[in-house]
């Protein structure tokens, strides 16, 4: 496998991370996961724009222009013959003697991108998943796709240890999002999801789902969902680049839409797939 390390495509085995890379020592960096469907890079512009925004919010300058970056990512996909998979990429503040203070502007950011396996979780998309809730203990800049994922990692593990798929965060009584997903609840045919502010990552899949809903004539409302009112909703689902639209059938043991993916969720799942550059949609 070839990986992109700054300007060069090199063999996976030759890639080395310096012990003083700030991503390694401080989690001082940002990342993206992009999906490739049938060799086509899905929503690359949106992901790269979000990467640039995330980096800018923590005062990291990307080492390439977005145009250059796009060309290099295309090259990476082509050299590795990625057909149905993903690309992970991250940018850190660079390598410099350990110090909380930013290094000088002469220290370049370090970029790495490489293919990762990613397959549509088709069975789970049909059956739906169970989730649990937990307090959202993350910092209040969840809009930045930062390498600091400690609470997300803890929460995902808690779900797995309980035999569940995902943990949904609740901050001050409000449902925000999942540990690596956005959250939606459905009532009377309307889809509700948290507004895109600093309490959630504005998922690229979320944006596409809102678009898919508009195309399918499904009403959407971006507003806070009270955790105490969750049981008043008929359906729920989560989304991300890797899981697309994933129905939720139980939250903390309580069933939604009789323990099966709900009809509105399934129609959105289909409408989302219709946006994909995927010739085998069903
Ligand atoms: N929210 C969080 C916390 C995430 O980590 C992710 C993806 O990793 C998402 C939402 C979904 O984002 P996207 O649809 O861009 O993959």
Automatic annotation (TrEMBL):
Any one Pfam family match given in the protein's UniProt record, by short name: Aminotran_4
Gene for this chain: dat
Domain of life of the organism encoding this protein: Bacteria
Entry cofactors: pyridoxal 5'-phosphate
Keywords for the protein's UniProt record, in alphabetical order: Aminotransferase, Pyridoxal phosphate, Transferase
CDD domains assigned: D-AAT_like (cd01558)
InterPro entries: Aminotrans_IV, Aminotrans_IV_CS, Aminotransferase-like, BCAT-like_C, BCAT-like_N, Class-IV_PLP-Dep_Aminotrnsfr, D_amino_transT
GO molecular function, one term: D-alanine-2-oxoglutarate aminotransferase activity
Family: Belongs to the class-IV pyridoxal-phosphate-dependent aminotransferase family.
Species classification: Bacteria, Bacillati, Bacillota, Bacilli, Bacillales
Protein name according to UniProt: D-alanine aminotransferase
Catalytic activity as recorded in UniProt: D-alanine + 2-oxoglutarate = D-glutamate + pyruvate
Gene3D superfamilies according to UniProt: 3.30.470.10, D-amino Acid Aminotransferase, subunit A, domain 2 (3.20.10.10)
Stated role: Acts on the D-isomers of alanine, leucine, aspartate, glutamate, aminobutyrate, norvaline and asparagine. The enzyme transfers an amino group from a substrate D-amino acid to the pyridoxal phosphate cofactor to form pyridoxamine and an alpha-keto acid in the first half-reaction.
SUPFAM superfamilies: D-aminoacid aminotransferase-like PLP-dependent enzymes
Subunit and interaction comment: Homodimer.
Classification via PANTHER family: AMINO-ACID AMINOTRANSFERASE, D-ALANINE AMINOTRANSFERASE
Enzyme Commission designation: 2.6.1.21
